[in-house]
Amino acid sequence: MAAAVELQEISKKIGRQPILDGISFAVQAGELFALLGPSGCGKTTTLRLIAGFDQPSSGTILINGLPMAGLPPYQRDVNTVFQNYALFPHLTVCQNIAFGLEMQRLERRQIAARVDEAIDLVRLSGLEERYPHQLSGGQQQRVALARALVRRPSVLLLDEPLGALDQKLRKAMQLELKRLQRRLGLAFIYVTHDQEEALTMADRLAVMRGGRICQIGSPQDLYESPTTAFVADFIGDTNLLRGQVVKCTADTVCVQVAAASLHVSGPGDELLSPEATVTVAVRPEKIVLRAEPSAEHDNNLGVIVEDVIYLGMETRYLLRLSDNHVLVHRQQNTGNAPQFQIGTKVFACFAAHSVRILQDERSSEPQPDYSEIPT
After folding, report:
1. Mean pLDDT of the chain
2. CB 3.0-4.6 Å disulfide test: which of 24, 187, 221, 277 passes with 4?
3. Do the two domains 3-225 and 237-358 of this chain adopt the same fold?
4. Within 10 Å of residue 372's Cβ, how many Cβ atoms?
5. Which superfamily is assigned to 3-225 in CATH?
6. Is 83 exposed, middle or buried (0-12, 13-18, 19+ CB in 10 A)?
7. Is 95 exposed, middle or buried (CB count within 10 Å of its CB: 0-12, 13-18, 19+)?
8. Model pLDDT for residues 200-218, shown as the tens digit of each residue
9. Which pLDDT score is estimated for 370?
10. Alpha carbon distance 317, 328 (integer Å)
11. What's the pTM value of the predicted model, to 2 decimals?
């Protein structure tokens, strides 16, 4: 069965400036796929190419197995929800939702039935005759969704649709969108720069940087097993430590970081020769603090508590390992964990399997400047 959407080696240039550089991925029917990355990485450009608002410089886009080269947006089995919703201010909720169907010249009875179905689907009953300015942000977002869904596309493209909402409503609408997507069984391609939003909603996600895809996987895969320092740092909080490989064995790599030796689970890669410089990552929640070294953990790093930040559900510790290395530890405020004061010497303890050795990102390569190019 053909993928709902497939991109094959897509590149895009504006003049001589590269925007996308050979990106490829496939989205299956019924999958919620997120494109995640910082501003200017090419997320929205990718969505515009799928929608047909722009054309790639090279590569192939397939929708339900059919090539899209040269096809305008209205001939593609997709619809788009924009961040600003793009509602017609002079039309009511019903009229906004019906607009696309009227352009298709469907019969009035058919339009009315499908508009009623869409209104019920997004829970807007009772608001049919209101105008956009009479609606809350969340209600406007639902109207935009209904207008996109009423045409019954096989793929829905969403360009940061929750960006204009406050945090509490945003979180509620994340769950609402996920519920809607599961109920309909459509492919959703969702653009966001919000890591928590992507982790909450996506079945799979692609992390983008500089017009390229860094890594694709499930939220758990990308959080637990990032392949590069950029992905590790962009998906949640992490401690990145630069060190030197001291020893490689069949199941452990030893890395020297300042005066500390870190033990990392996994076979020593042939590229990890002794004295090789590497970056290792450990998540803040994988660390536990102890007054003395812990026999239960492979790594016990002597650190000084530099700061303690109370955040309600958790307390965040800043831990000085050396002049050049500071660790972050997050501790849930359950009332059972020991508390440490600023200036106390403690041990940051964690298992060898909690540490990741990350790939070299070839940071010496020149990166295009995307800051002046809309994405």
Report:
1. 89
2. 187
3. no
4. 7
5. P-loop containing nucleotide triphosphate hydrolases (3.40.50.300)
6. middle
7. middle
8. 999 999 999 999 999 999 9
9. 39
10. 6
11. 0.86
